[in-house]
């Protein structure tokens, strides 16, 4: 460690710091918009705004040409990576919050704090489950022909609806975390 030795923060402070960081990430609508970044890398949507960008992409029919397997594979891979990332991150986030609730401040003078952390964990677990529904719409996780399902606008619209449900779960989790931090 560089610098002066400092006292170890309390477990409650460590939990609060983690939750505050999570709120900053979720509320940051765009990352890496540096002017010197390559054009293809600028304007990365993030947090709750990322869900809206994902939905909009799924709904642009012209970007999912049924006759172009290469384009479908490439676009599906990006979509599938997003599904997997959200599923995994929200599952582990739910477990982290459930374990955190055990140690987070509760009791006299702090009514409902633990309950809000557990409600946020439940929202993230529900979001994880929604990602499995998206995989099922394309024939299941790991389906080698899943990219072909993306050519069907009705399949993508069903996926977009699920992504919007996931965003709503994420927003509810944020509300519970905000309440827990009060």
Describe it for me?
This protein is mainly α and 182 residues long. Helix content is 68%, strand content 2%. It has a two-stranded antiparallel ribbon with strand order 1-2. The two termini are 32 Å apart.
Give the gist of this structure.
With 182 residues, this protein is an all-alpha fold. It is 68% helix and 2% strand. The longest helix has 35 residues, at 69-103.
Using the CA coordinates, give the radius of gyration.
19 Å
SS elements, strand count: 2
Determine the strand fraction and express it as a percent band: under 5%
Biggest pleated-sheet summary: 2 strands, antiparallel
Shape: globular
Q: Unreliable stretches, pLDDT < 50, 5 or more residues?
A: none
Percent range of helical residues: 55-70%
Q: Structural class of the secondary elements?
A: mainly alpha
- Name the helix and strand elements from N-terminus to C-terminus, one letter apiece: HEEHHHHH
Q: Count of helical segments?
A: 6
The N- and C-terminal alpha carbons lie at a distance of: 32 Å
User: What spatial order of strands do you see in the largest sheet?
Assistant: 1-2
What does the average pLDDT come to? 90
